[in-house]
Amino acid sequence: MRRPVKSIVVLTGAGISAESGISTFRASDGLWENHRIDDVATPEGFERNPQLVHHFYNQRRRQLLLEDIRPNAAHTALVRLEREFPGEVLIVTQNVDNLHERAGSRKLLHMHGELLKMRCVETNQIFDVQEDIGFDTLCRCCQTPGNLRPHIVWFGEIPLHMPQISRALESCDLFVAIGTSGNVYPASGFYQTAKIHRAHTVELNLEQTRSSFDERLFGRASIVVPEYVDQLICSAVAP
Ligand code: NAD
């Protein structure tokens, strides 16, 4: 028998932001916005060609700041879940956009970093950034050119907030994955950790992935997520 749901972990991926106008990452052909992942999302790629990598993230940042890029109904539904569900809700996102926080989510962890942040490779200080960055941009803390890198977790690097995420996965009653292909480790294994600790696991996606969730609902995030959140809130507050 399923235990009552008192705490929820929601994992989101690029699919939740697709209807806001931000392209997903196409794992099947290894391309992100027509660039090879090896070139723009690995430490080796940055070492080989920092100008290209800065240019790529400058483009992503510019796109995110366009006026017509806004949170969609799926982001908003998760804000409602956080506010109205009478228990713990933690959102863990693989996304580097800021659409969850713009919608109003507060208990949110960006496990793969954030587009609107840069980091000094010497001091690890993190800075907010909206403007373009180049290889010769002076770092704000050490005033040295070439010391800034995108605050993005690249392939081969350790995701952020892992101890907190692991604790939440081990203690949640419900794990919901939204719009993620399950191709990027370690997020792809989160549902298994939650399952081992007896959580109910649910996938909301446009199409079936290879992961074996307990329950699956297919459709566009802007439709499926608000419906699912309504259900969760209703069943939690029903007498
Ligand atoms: P992914 O691109 O590998 O998979 C996206 C998933 O979303 C697919 O399973 C697809 O079927 C589903 N999907 C597409 N449109 C959808 C919709 N409208 N509604 C519901 N589901 C939809 O994404 P991932 O698993 O998050 O891995 C991508 C990696 O690339 C992440 O590490 C992330 O950091 C990075 N990335 C981030 C962004 C962003 O911040 N928005 C965008 C692209 C890539």
Low-pLDDT stretches: none
Question: What is the arithmetic mean of pLDDT?
Answer: 94
- Helical/strand content category: alpha/beta
Radius of gyration equals 18 Å
Helical segment count? 9
Strand content: 15-25%
Number of strands: 11
First-last Cα distance: 19 Å
For the largest beta sheet, what order do the strands appear in spatially? 5-4-1-9-10-11
Largest sheet: 6 strands, parallel
Ions and ligands: nicotinamide-adenine-dinucleotide
Element-level helix/strand string: EHEEHHHHEHEEEEHEHEEH
Q: Give the helix proportion (percent range).
A: 25-40%
Shape: elongated
Brief account:
By secondary structure, the chain is of the alpha/beta class. Helix content is 33%, strand content 21%. The chain contains nine helices and eleven strands.
Please supply descriptive tags for the structure shown above.
single chain, 239 residues, alpha/beta, six-stranded parallel sheet, three-stranded antiparallel sheet, elongated, binds nicotinamide-adenine-dinucleotide
Note down, in words, how this protein is organized.
This protein is of the alpha/beta class and 239 residues long. It contains nine helices and eleven strands. The chain has helices spanning 15-18, 37-40, 43-48, 50-64, 73-84, 99-103, 162-171, 190-196, 221-237, and strands at residues 7-12, 31-32, 35-36, 88-93, 108-110, 113-120, 126-128, 148-152, 174-178, 200-205, 215-218. The strands form three sheets. The protein has a six-stranded parallel β-sheet with strand order 5-4-1-9-10-11, with helices on both faces. The protein has a three-stranded antiparallel β-sheet with strand order 7-6-8, with helices on one face. Strands 2-3 form a two-stranded antiparallel sheet. Helix 6 (99-103) links the parallel strand 4 (88-93) and strand 5. Helix 5 runs parallel beside helix 9 and helix 7 packs across helix 8 (190-196). The mean pLDDT is 94. Bound molecules: nicotinamide-adenine-dinucleotide (NAD).
